[in-house]
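U., I forgot to send this yesterday:
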Amino acid sequence: MKSKIIISMLASIGLFAAAGAVQAQTAGDRVYVIDQRGEVVLSGTGLCWRTGFWTPAAAAKDPAGCKCDKDLLPKEVCEPPAPRAAAAPTAKPT
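Result:
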């Protein structure tokens, strides 16, 4: 009887551990915490939650990097280059 209880407890602990491992995000996947809807998790003050793998270089590659840490990333990463001005028309010879 006692061994059945121990075996069932070990089995249930193993199942809970396996279920948690399945839901965990992969390390190289995203540098911000993502919820079940695929959105970045925000704190009560509107700040993005970062994972332990966050670095400025990784944030620049993450799709949510400019939304979350625009002030920490290089300007050229978050802002598209300004369109070039069209060449001024030249006078036609008469």
